[in-house]
Protein 1
Amino acid sequence: MKAVVDRETCTGCTLCTETCPDVFEMDGDVASVKVAVVPDSAADARREAMAACPVEAISIEAD
């Protein structure tokens, strides 16, 4: 699975980077994905980060 952050929608709240630092990082004042494929070990945290995003800027795509 691949995580995607819509940079136009992201408000830079940092919830995703705090919840799932293995996948998300801040790039200036918006979040970005730092891995090409979400590792299995981070799948639960990735789902939690996606659910916590207040503006629904995170989506998941199949590889």
Protein 2
Amino acid sequence: MKLAECKRILVVKPSSLGDIIHTLPAVEAIHRAVPDAEIDWLVSTDWSPLLKGVTFLDRLIPFPRKEFRGISGGLKAVTWARTTLQQTHYDLTLDFQGLFRSALLSRLTKTSRVMGFQKTREGASLFYDEKVMIQGWSATHAVDRNLALAKAAGADIVSPSFGLPEGDPVDGLTSIRKKPTILLHPFSRGEGKSLSTDEVIELANQLAPTPIILVGMFEGNTPDTWPDNITDLLGQTSLPQLIHLIRFCDWTVSVDSGPMHLAAGITDRVLSLHTWSNPAMVGPWPKSSWAFREGEIVQVVDLTPDRFPERRDLKSIYGKQRRLFKPDDIETMTSFLREQLSI
């Protein structure tokens, strides 16, 4: 069945935060191609709040992944899929996840046309009716790979959009908004990506009195007091509130993480901080965003896959003091942000 004939479409992309963001432009392109079709999205329960309010989606299907662990959980997942997914009679299912479980769930919909990538893991491609080959897979950003799958399904790729909602307001920030404000997401669970609390303090002191809103999750010990220009919202915001804060602030500064990709889906006023990851491959997708690595701040449009290849020598990155960013790096970030904010 051609895309133009489809009435019900299922998107399978359960997780994670950054991966879901990377899929939105492809799904928005599908919607523009068939605006009257109903598009459902199978998403892990933890991430479903991210998609609430996306106007081109008709229904979210929360997937309780944590309930389906182990062999017995796999059998439960099959039963769940049969009772939840087979009743809709989808015309097209697109598996953007590319793993065994997502491909199996896609197949269990009994859709006549299941599409996914040729390059998958865990044998996922065996479940697809159509497999899309991406030339130069390892040198292609995830957003562009997903757009290629949408194009293969029949969508025209013109001016891709993320279509994220407005988000939920956060109380108590009225006084801050009188000045240019920075949203700082400095911590990541990925090894060798996070700033230290000392580096956060150093950055805040150099930017003072510019207000900084601190967001994200942090499992370590925070200082007894932050600099006066920091508003500490660590662990206190939902995903919809984080979306609102990104829109509220003038710039977002984030380590390589899901919230960085969320910010890049909303605004190009994003500075992504990289230590070992390749910003051309896993950094912000919009060409007018910015990325930092190895003492340089580069606009994404000027990045190439070979400029900052991925590094795994974390010991040499940390150095003896185990700090990811040198004092000169903090000064480079500060100078850039002051220039952009005209402060």
